[in-house]
Amino acid sequence: MELSVSSTSPALLKLNHHFLSKNYLPIKIPSLHFANDKKLPSFYRQTKRPSFLRKFASPASSSIAVGPSNDRLPADIKVTETQEPNSRVRLSVEVPPAVCEDCYKRVMSEFTKQAKVPGFRPGKDVPESILLSYVGKQNVQKATVESILKRTLPHAMSSVTGRALRDSVQIATKFTDMEKTYLSLNSLRYDVVVDVAPEVIWIPENGYRDLKIVVEIDSEIDAQRASEQELRQRHKSLGSMRIITDRGLQIGDVAVLDVSATKIDKDESNVQNIPAAESKGFHFDTELCDRVIPGFLDSIIGIQRGETKSFPLVFPESWKQENLRGVHAQFTVECKELFYRDLPELDDSFADKLLPGCTTLQQVKESLLQKFLEVEQTAREQATDNAILDQLCKMVEIDIPQSLFEEQGRQLYGAKLLQIQANMKLNEQQLASLSSPKAVNEFLENQKENITRVIKQNLAVGDIFKRENLQFSTEDLVKEVENSIAEFKRHKQEYNEERVEEQVQEVLEGAKVLEWLREHSEIQYISR
């Protein structure tokens, strides 16, 4: 089963474009991961993972709690900051012997308080050599390195305060290598890598303030045309189908067809079946010919029951299935049955059957038109938003952090998984298969372009919200949060109230930005 995401849905604004202000971590509590160390000291293993970690975070990764940054050190540490691709910063940290020695003394003092050394009362001083022998020199060494990290990390990361992204901090140096350095030099060196908030670069600068947007509107959403088609369909439901025995297919008839198609090269040497174009017992309403490949209806007009026709057609470049665009195909159609509709003449007596509650035919027409005017307006607004978002994406350059890409991708995957679960009621085995790291990673790889586009759109929107000092009312926020929580409760789903509020704020920010852009953009609508 393959999952995919739409690249143009305005609902994507519900995802993390606000992270510039909310995904920062206080430097005193980052979540840290060690490279290539699966077995870590107890200090790390016992630390609980923060609640804000991603649902699909690797179970093999380990986190570490970090002490307060106001813990004064006996000497300064040296930190060299290096910019890396994907908005990542590498901090190379050198801890002098004075700091290491102070951490060693603290560790020994703590062991003295807690260790129950035979022959010594709890809490009393124990000679260093005896304490080392009792606790184990290697255990003391590990604990000292842990203490050094705990005390120096907040100071080392002070340069990225306010920029570090949530759950992106990783110690790049192996713990075993740090132990060796400390043992041989009585000092410590380690590297920390962290993703930081990427800069949104507009080309041109502030170009969003003068957008020129061309919005393509599908002819199917024309309210007048759609309401007339709906009335026609309702009229058809009042009639009956009669078998045609004395003539061929005409406009207005319904045919039951067996359809097959083959793909042919221009030299007709390579013939392949087209499964997507095959259908048995296909009920073809000739008044809905816009749902089939252009030229199909013209090619079968006049066909009679039991007759077979074969003809070539070319799939247009606008065909919904991309793999069929421009394909030359040979269609074979066998007519199994032909029907015509015996319809009553419409008058006011059919009003209530056409649309319950209506008493006249005119009232039916007006009600249907009003309904489709609302649909048309909604479709127009959505198409406008999509066009604006696509344009914003083309106007920004962003060096996207890998952690942000993965989190955004996992959120999209999780939302798609929930949708599938709601539609198909997956069993535990299917759900486990789709939730596996392999399935998630395949989704991230296959949807890389779409995920990147979503992130760029969301960051652009968030940047505009800040640049233009846009706001929304507290009342709107409270109301939408209450509505969202009520929905969770109605469906008996678990939720995090803080995260719900963040999601609602994202939606309100996105809506406010799109509203502002529609007002300040030059928008042209064309039909397609």
TrEMBL record:
Enzyme class: isomerase
Span of domain Trigger factor C-terminal: 360-517
Organism domain of life: Eukaryota
GO molecular function: peptidyl-prolyl cis-trans isomerase activity; protein folding chaperone; ribosome binding
Pfam families linked: Trigger_C, Trigger_N
Keywords tagged on the record: Chaperone, Coiled coil, Isomerase, Rotamase
Known EC number: 5.2.1.8
Cross-referenced HAMAP family: Trigger_factor_Tig
Function: Involved in protein export. Acts as a chaperone by maintaining the newly synthesized protein in an open conformation. Functions as a peptidyl-prolyl cis-trans isomerase.
Entry similarity comment: Belongs to the FKBP-type PPIase family. Tig subfamily.
Protein's name according to its UniProt entry: peptidylprolyl isomerase
